[in-house]
Amino acid sequence: MTVDRLLPTDDAYQLLGLAEEIADGELAPRVADFEERGEFPREVVRTLGRSGLLGLPYAEDDGGAGQPYEVYLQVLEVLAGRWLAIGEAVSVHTLSCYPVAVFGSERQRKMLPDLLGGDLLGAYCLSEPAGGSDAASLTTKAVRDGDDYVVNGTKAWITHARHADFYNIFCRTGGPGATGISCLLADRGTPGLVPQAAERTMGLRSSAPAQIVFDDCRVPADRLIGDDGAGFRIAMQALDAGRLGIAACAVGLAQAALDHAVAYSRERTQFGRPIGDFQGIGFTLADQATRISAARALLLHAARLKDRGRPFRIEAAKAKLFATDVAMKVTTEAVQVLGGAGYVRDHPVERWFREAKMLQIVEGTNQIQRLVISRALAKGAAQ
Ligand code: COS
Q1: With 80 as the cut, is the pLDDT of residue 331 above it?
Q2: N or C: which end of the chain has fewer CB within 10 A?
């Protein structure tokens, strides 16, 4: 279904047109094969970079495209609707550029044109084997030694672990808790930064995460982003924006599943008529369409608050929570609409169903989003 979008500029409509062209021409024909083989589509990501889609919400002076977040998210929705791993790649890369763009020193910000230029890909290393939701308890340690920090520890569930060109490392430089955490930026190939084998995942096999072991990994001290001890705040603030990216991916995935289910319900006949003519199917599809529109409206509201410089953290948590739950529900029901055909690999809905589960977990499980929202409610904060 064509989504009727309200975009702020003519430029934005052109950008969405470009995203749709790339999604149809470059992503849709490749996704099934890459997912089947579990191969990361580095060349496809480069194509996006060359088309200017890897730095959309960052300032043009820094090498980005200067697009409002609401436009960036709708591009992301289109890409994720054809290939979720690609949507996730763009979202994680955008997240990984955030610490330097927002907290970097003047000197560090000079790296931005490279980071945003399209050739490089970022990774965001926060989670650890023993600490995912409780991010403030992370134990990867960085000890100052001369002009370097020496990093030791293990990061887990890292998207692009094996393919990234730069890595944000959230590590402990001080005492326990949130205030002892700092953020370092390391390059691919830094000795002692050792990506491990890819996880054997349920979905998104073309971009399976992996652990990274840091073994006496030396990172120059001038790669400390922000102040010593500011790492947790940087990580959380980056995630506030990043979670909107995941919400957009979820809406794209849900829309793809609905479109497929609608098309199938028009073609498939039983009892002498298309199954979509039965109220049991038609009403299910109507509910899915309504949920998707609500999810899109919620995330765009949060994005517009962000674009205006207003607090958006709680709205972002709601959008991530709602949109990813919608994606899970819509993909589950899409499998049901297709029946046996939905359960086999001839149709993409079984893959979308497996992929939706990941969205309820990454960048803060949906339980963590509820925690963020409920804490704000308890404090009487609206946003
Ligand atoms: N922006 C800016 N500052 C933030 C913030 C945000 N979004 N969230 C928390 N902070 C600050 C707090 O204000 C607090 O600072 P002060 O003590 O100066 O007020 C500090 O950080 C600690 O915050 P808090 O006490 O809320 O930390 P908790 O340990 O309770 O953790 C949650 C909060 C659970 C929300 C956080 O750990 C979280 O988001 N966990 C999920 C992590 C995640 O998303 N992982 C996915 C990895 S990327 S795939």
Answers
A1: yes
A2: N
Mean pLDDT, the chain, as a whole number?
97
106 is catalytic: no
The label of the residue with tokens 């791993």 reads 85
Mutational test site, ligand 1, from 170, 236, 314, 373, max ligand atoms within 8 Å of CB:
236
Q: What is the DSSP string of 195-234?
A: EEEEP--SS-GGG--EEEEEEEEEEEGGGEESSTT-HHHH
The pTM for the full model equals 0.97
Topology adopted by domain 122-229: Butyryl-CoA Dehydrogenase, subunit A; domain 2 (2.40.110)
Pocket lining: 371 vs ligand 1, CB cutoff 6 Å:
yes
Nearest to 87 by CA among 128, 169, 37, 31: 31
Q: How far apart are CA 269 and CA 281, in angstroms?
A: 12
Asked: is 10-116 a CATH 2.60.40.2250 domain? The reply is no
Ligand 1: centre distance to CA 232 (Å): 7
Asked if the model's pLDDT at residue 381 lies above 80, the reply is: no
pLDDT in tens, 31-71: 999 999 999 999 999 999 999 999 999 999 999 999 999 99
